[in-house]
Amino acid sequence: MSAAAYTYTAGPTPEAHDRQRSACVALARALHLDIARTYSDQAGARPELARLHSDASAGRVSVVFVASLDRLSCTLPAAPQIIADLHDAGVNVYAANYETRQLADVTTFADTLPVAIPASSRLRR
């Protein structure tokens, strides 16, 4: 199983990427996985997210960890579609702020989004 971390910051802040990656690594370890790849974007276009999608479609990534759902998209409502696209490519997605529960499909978001919003603000500090 090839695990990856995806981090996103609104500006050039390596410390924020480091904090997010650390949260991803901790969750991966809890699931007995090692992160082999890291994709990191900052403000604006998300070329690394596009590369992650490409690698997922090619079978190079089977698990993705993010620190929180809002790191996947510019808006939380877009996150379910990104997760669905990754899931369709055979990738399991986990958010560190949602512990070890796999984010499998849109039906998990009724209770996920209220948890994700407050927790994500703590990870950005």
From TrEMBL:
> Can you say what this protein is called?
Recombinase family protein
The Resolvase/invertase-type recombinase catalytic domain is annotated at: 3-125
Q: Which Pfam family is one of this chain's hits?
A: Resolvase
Give the species.
Answer: Promicromonospora aerolata
Coiled-coil zones: none
Q: Where are the transmembrane segments?
A: none
State the superkingdom.
Answer: Bacteria
Question: SMART domains annotated for this entry?
Answer: Resolvase
Q: Entry's InterPro entries?
A: Resolv_N, Resolvase-like_N_sf
